[in-house]
Amino acid sequence: MSIPQHVTKAHATGNDFVVYLDSDGTFEPTEDEVRFLADRHFGIGGDGLIRLAHPRDVSDLSAEQVADCEAQGAEWFMDYRNADGSLAEMCGNGTRAITLFAQRHGLFDGDTFRLGTRAGVKTLTSLGDVPGLGRDVFRVEMGAWKRGELDGYEVTIPGTDGSARGTFVDMGNPHVVAVVEDAFSSLPNVESLDLVAKPVVAPAIESDQNVEFVRVDEIGEATGVGEATMRVNERGCGETLSCGTGLCATAVTLRAKTDVDHWMITVRGGTLRVDVTDTDVTLTGSATLVGDITLLGV
Length: 298
Prior knowledge:
By secondary structure, this protein is of the alpha+beta class. It has helices at about 30-40, 65-70, 90-105, 245-260, and strands at about 5-10, 15-20, 50-55, 75-80, 110-115, 120-130, 135-145, 145, 155, 165-170, 175-180, 200, 210-220, 225-235, 240, 260-265, 270-275, 280-285, 290-295. The longest helix is centred in the C-terminal third of the chain and has 15 residues, at about 245-260.
């Protein structure tokens, strides 16, 4: 086995992971090992696996990516794998979970952590406990976003009548955000959607994508903060309780539709804040370390 004997279960607003520290670069997992650990019946269970390693020890990174991490002061890299074993470019919730893990292991001083990802270096700030968002809250500078044509796609769910219009957003990984319960959607309300089936996006996008379904609940005229409810089907693992990059893609789409920059978005795992500017997105939410696990027979 190329995984360590001791791992940790963590989650960030219900988006859960198996995480471990690989200081020496000796525990790069195979696809089969990721699938085993992420299996909710035969393994530990999780939406993905995160190995915290030095950038030089992540085999799929180019020399340029390693150099970029070093130049930006990112000593540690989030080697994230989807539950099916595939590599992932980015996971916003995963950055918070692994940063809390790094903090508890004393891997950085102060309140700021620079973390390498396949979507570039991200800066996380520890905010402690925040009313309305929970304990061990981190603010993540998610970086630049790119949006396609507003409502440029049709989104359907196999076995469910109706459709909605979707907007493509690139957050380092691909998303299509569909607003439901509006004049352009004939899908059921967001709580009733059957997201066991993988949504279909037309016209097809070349790479597989995450698909978010969102409802605008309220926009505070005095505060300038919108409230929304979201569910997500993530590529590589199906529906999850939360998706950090999906929350950011959702806020980007809602901003384009409403001109509101700040959003409190509720997912099945909790509530997070997303702030959007013309150039980048910031995601704020909690993280939790559930427990340490000793693998038998490893």
